[in-house]
Amino acid sequence: MSQQTTIRKLAELVNAPVEKLLEQLAEAGMAFDGPDQVVTSIEKMKLLGFLKRAHGKGDKPAEDAAAPKKITLNRRKVQELTVGGGKTRSTVAVEVRQKRTYFKAGEMEAPPVSDEREDALRKLEESRQRNLTEQQKLAEDDKRRADEVAERKRLEEAAAAEKIVAVAVAEVEAREETTKPKPGHHGAPKPAPRAEAPRGEDRGTPKHKTRGSHAMVAGVEDDDSASRFAGQLHLSATDRARRSTARGKPKPKRQAEQARSGGGAHGFSRPTAPIVREIAIGDAITVADLAQKLALKGGDVVKTLFKMGVMATITQTIDHDTAVLVAEELGHTAVRAGGDDAEIELLAHAEEVQGDRTARPPVVTIMGHVDHGKTSLLDYIRRTKVASGEAGGITQHIGAYHVETDKGVISFLDTPGHAAFTQMRARGAKLTDIVILVVAADDGVMPQTIEAVQHAKAAKVPLIIAINKIDKSDADPSQVKNGLLAHDVVAEEFGGDTQFVEVSAKTGQGVDALLDAVLLQAEVLELTAVTDARATGVVIESSLDRGRGPVATVLVQQGTLKKGDYLVCGVQYGRVRALFDETGSQVPEAGPSIPVQVLGLSGVPDAGDDFVVVDDERLAKEVAQQRDIKRRESRMVAVPGNRMEDIMAQMGQQGEGQLALNLVIKADVQGSVQALREALTALSTDAIRINVIGSGVGGITESDANSAVTSKATIIGFNVRADATARRVVESNGVDLRYFSIIYDVIDQVKQVASGILGVEIREEIIGTAEVRDVFRSSKFGAVAGCMVVEGVVKRHKPIRVLRDSVVVFEGELESLRRFKENVDEVRNGTECGIGVKRYDDVKPGDQIECFERIEVQRTL
Ligand code: GDP
Question: Which residue in 26, 227, 542, 843 has a CA-CA distance of 20 to 30 Å to 713?
């Protein structure tokens, strides 16, 4: 502040009389002469401090009894008085001095009192003191009581918590004793013995329990408990106990509460009844499916598995036994699912309808060697015999067709070749009543002719031989007859029962006679079916049509399929929306042996699947779903064996009668096929019969693989390999497929199986395959094959074979193995390389070079 402050000025500022200020300054130890003297800021501070102190003391009288308890203000007032009158009148200045002392309210010292009054005051004071003491005492009592209550409460809670732990421990122990699973046992409380426990003194429960806490923990049954835990009844009591303790030690109130209401299964006189589910489990089940059956979350099942020491994810498949253990661990029971419940219902359903059996048309399959005229014959018959629709005889290929002749109806399966036939058989479907075996008169009996004979015989289906191309000049029907005689197909003229018909698919000659022969054979077979019943049959072909959805050609075997029918078809189901025949015309129905195209299925069924018409959609859907689950399960479970080892295992068992080892033999040349057939069949003993159910020259085809599946045969590939489709069938069906290159090895191995001797088996393991993409010739290296390794690894020092069309054309060693002009020891899958084959210059693009090693395997059963 630049302007200097005088006392007068300060008095104005603080709104106090100058005198008083002077006085206060004097009291604060600062003497001033008059109101115009300047007050320094230090002096102001000093004054302020003094005044604060003066007031502050007043605030705390008890602290300083000597401090003044009053403020005294002196006031001096000058008045002018007029005295006398007239000329004597004079003015006199009169100064009035006032002094006032102010006491602060409530702190005023007691005014001087008399003795009597003093006495009264003392008594009052005494009484007040007594009251005070009394009050203090009461307060102390209250506090003590409160402490007691708190302590009691604390003890009770601790007891309850300990009790929960004790129950949990007891449960775990009880469960450990009984977990070694007994079917149907529930992991939940063992009520009877445990119910006595609380009153029984120790049992690991705390001693200091009061009656109250006892009642609390031992638990009066709480009606709420069931409903409170209803949502988690699937948890065993242990789990509940664990859950309640796992959240951290005694969380007093809540836990005690839980112990009372549900967690303390220990004290229940009657346990809450859990929902025990009985579930059906097949050979395998995914964790997710199991959880669904148990009405649990997948995670709970995973946890249970984990506790049992099995690490599994939700999508993983567990086997039947593990699934049963899990179900029982969770307090449910499990039965083995036949998966047949709906199926049985379906059967009952299908059997409900019985009717008169009447003659039905035969179903024919045409087989034969390539180029002998199967397709031509099928086409000719269709072209000339199928009752064509309005559109000028345009027929569509739906996998089958039927012809109407004067003498009767015949249905043809329109897929020539053996694959369809064997595939159907492998699926267990017996569709074909008669096989027409086409043999070209100019070519005679060929490998696939023989194969067809074998297939038909295995399926016990009669043959009719169509000697085709009879129009040709070099046609020689007798060559055909004689050729087949060697395979036990004997013409009537030779005293047999097989009809031979000479035909020409080109000119149509003999075709009617062939159809007559078929109908004659059908008569002999006395083929019958119930017409007036719900339809059943087999899927011949199926596809997904963009406009029409899933389309299936089915062959009705029994009953009549009608538009509007509900049906289950393999793992699909649906309602027949429309039916079409082979001419593309809509038909209202199809009877026995009639092929028909079906629209309205939920999905595309597989060829070979059966179909059944049912009353309602529910059953159709149920069966389809159950089949789907079963099919998925069976895919996951190892296919039971038709392996040589299984035969050996069976040989060890007594009382089995004669066993059979079925073989399919494929070799590179006819000579090897014959040699193997004879040598292996001759190994038959009293204990085991060796049947060659199929044989032929060339690579192993899908049809070979399918017939091996059907007859549970081992496939022997002698210098030949399986093609990709055959390999798929082999893999998915667990067919025993073995490759050999030495006849002696084949004989030795089969001999060992036949005699049941365990020994060392030399196995060839193919370690890698390379495909020849290009062949370069250089004067220095000769032929070098530019290859891509497509499987495994090709090693420089291992033996190799060159394969052409699945047949071995050379066996030997590698001359060189290079990558980017560098010699290497091995080349892996997916890598290009240059291969030079020692002493073999004839490698061609498209060939395969397979690298193998021979390993000794000790046989085990
Ligand atoms: P697939 O392989 O058994 O189905 O035989 P195809 O039906 O394809 O016939 C093969 C060849 O033989 C074709 O060129 C046909 O034209 C011919 N072909 C079929 N049947 C006859 C016939 O009866 N006479 C004559 N000359 N040729 C025929």
Answer: 542
* 441 Cα: distance to centroid of ligand 1 (angstroms): 11
Q: How far is the CA of 418 from the centre of ligand 1 (A)?
A: 17
Residue type, 108: M
Q: What are the pLDDT digits (tens) for 780-799? A: 777 889 999 888 889 988 99
pTM of the model: 0.45
Give the distance (Å) from ligand 1 centre to CA of residue 442.
11
Which of 1, 2, 9 lies closest to 32, judged by CA?
A: 9
**186-238 per-position pLDDT tens digit:** 434 334 333 333 443 344 334 333 333 333 333 333 444 433 333 333 434 44
- Alpha carbons 701 and 723: distance in angstroms, whole number: 6
Q: How far is the CA of 298 from the centre of ligand 1 (A)?
A: 61
How buried is residue 835: exposed, middle or buried, by Cβ count under 10 Å (0-12/13-18/19+)?
A: buried
Q: What letter would DSSP give residue 711? A: T
Return contacts of 770-774, CB within 8 angstroms, 24+ apart. 770/794, 770/827, 770/833, 770/835, 770/848, 770/849, 770/850, 770/851, 771/846, 771/847, 771/848, 771/849, 772/835, 772/843, 772/844, 772/845, 772/846, 772/847, 772/848, 772/849, 773/832, 773/845, 774/845
Q: Are strands 363-368 and 434-440 parallel, antiparallel or unpaired?
A: parallel
* Low-confidence residues in the chain, pLDDT < 50: 1-2, 56-68, 105-111, 113, 165, 168-169, 171-172, 175-269, 390-392, 635-642, 652-656, 861
Calculate Rg over the CA atoms of the chain: 54
For the Cβ of 771 lying below 6 angstroms from any atom of ligand 1, the answer is no
- Determine whether the shortest distance from the Cβ of 506 to ligand 1 is under 6 A: yes
Ligand 1 site, residue 509, Cβ cutoff 6 A: no
472 C-beta closer than 6 A to ligand 1: yes
Q: How far apart are the CA of 577 and the centre of ligand 1, in A?
A: 39
| CB of 531 closer than 6 angstroms to any ligand 1 atom | no
